[in-house]
Structure formats: structure tokens, C-alpha cells
Specification:
Blueprint: H1 4-14, H2 21-33, H3 35-49, E1 54-55, E2 62-63, H4 69-72, E3 77-84, H5 87-95, E4 101-105, H6 123-131, E5 137-140, H7 146-159, E6 165-168, H8 184-192, E7 195-196
Parallel strand pairs: 3-4, 3-5, 5-6
Antiparallel strand pairs: 1-2, 6-7
The structure holds zinc ion.
């Protein structure tokens, strides 16, 4: 039997998405075997992040700096803005390495069923950002769910009179597909083939 401390570590790991009790025990054994390298590295990485996580006031991304690394990266094109539902979607799209602009995280999607309206999301903030000018294209990268598409439609209507291009991810995304679960090739393809809203 393992000590209380080791059990506590296994329990904490078992709560991570994608891991269960069995995988967590394997991870603990792996860490014990490599306590000088793997364990130390993990502890250092956790310490470096703990207490420093902040939400970016500009885009809603989560990072250790505010504004976040995406917003402050001078190599990014500030004239293109990609709107996503969640931070997970931002990270997924950015892994595909095709979109070089900046992002805006809504913090969810419109849902009549769950009583989530525009005021519950960062839509007002998005409108201010877009109305301030300097943006040529807004890419609506909502999930291919009914609620995601309703959200995209709502935003498109709110910004249709502004002098900019509004596009959305190409069809071909699986219906009901959450961006976060798609592989990078599929995401890159959906971005590359994005089309005007309307
Ligand atoms: Zn940001």
C-alpha cells in the first residue's frame, strides 16, 4: 500500500481530464521512477504557473501575463480577429498554426435553453473592439453546433454595417463538432476555406 501522500497525488491526477484512477497510478509510478528528472520538472512547471494565471483584459485568453502573449506578439496581424467560444478553441486553432491574427474569447455561446444571453458573454467587449477600427476581417469560429451557429449569426448581424469582412469557418466541420476535439489538419482546412457570412 502506498502512503497517504502518494495516494493524494494519485487522486489529484485521477481528476485530470483524460485520466482515470488506473492511468493516474501509472503516472505516479512513472514520476516515482523518474523523481530526479520527470517529477522535478513537473513540480517546477506547476509552481511557475500557480498564482500567475490571469485572464487577458483584451481578448479573454488565459495566460501568465495580461495582456496575454497572443495580444502582445508583434508578429501577429492586428487587422484580423478570430472570435471563439472558449479558451480551449483559441488554443486548438492556434495549434493549427494557420491563423496569424488575434483572438476574442466570448466565454460561451448564446443559449435560450440555459438562459445565456448576449450580456452574459464578452460580446459587448467584442463590439467595442471592432468598432474602434483597425480591423479588416472578423473570423467567426464558433463550434458547428446549433448554439454556436446562432451565436455567429447574432454577431454577424451586429457588425454587418461596419467596413470589414466577416467570414466563418468552412462547412465540412462535422455537425455538432467542437473545435477542441478536431485534429489540426481539419481545423487548418476549415480556416483556409473560410467564407463570407451571409
Ligand atoms: Zn489577449
Amino acid at each position: 500500500m502506498a502512503s497517504q501522500e502518494i495516494e493524494a497525488l494519485a487522486n489529484a491526477l485521477a481528476r485530470l481530464p483524460g485520466l482515470g484512477p488506473r492511468s493516474a497510478r501509472r503516472a505516479v509510478l512513472w514520476l516515482i521512477k523518474r523523481r530526479e528528472t520527470g517529477l522535478t520538472q513537473l513540480v517546477n512547471a506547476l509552481n511557475a504557473v500557480q498564482g500567475r494565471l490571469v485572464e487577458c483584459d483584451t481578448c479573454g485568453n488565459v495566460d501568465t501575463t495580461n495582456p496575454c502573449g497572443v495580444c502582445t506578439d508583434p508578429r501577429r496581424d492586428s487587422r484580423a480577429l478570430c472570435v471563439v467560444e472558449d479558451v480551449a478553441d483559441l488554443w486548438a486553432l492556434d495549434r493549427a498554426r494557420l491563423f496569424t491574427g488575434r483572438y476574442h474569447v466570448l466565454g460561451g455561446r448564446l443559449s435560450a435553453l440555459e438562459g445565456i444571453g448576449p450580456e452574459d458573454l464578452a460580446i459587448g467587449k467584442l463590439l467595442l473592439r471592432v468598432e474602434a477600427g483597425g480591423i479588416d476581417e472578423v473570423v467567426l469560429a464558433m463550434n458547428a453546433t446549433l448554439e454556436g451557429q446562432t451565436t455567429a449569426h447574432y454577431i454577424a448581424e451586429r457588425i454587418e454595417t461596419l467596413p470589414l469582412r466577416v467570414t466563418q469557418l468552412a462547412h465540412g466541420l462535422p455537425v455538432g463538432g467542437e473545435l477542441d476535439y478536431l485534429d489540426e489538419g481539419t481545423l487548418a482546412q476549415a480556416l483556409r476555406a473560410r467564407r463570407p457570412v451571409g
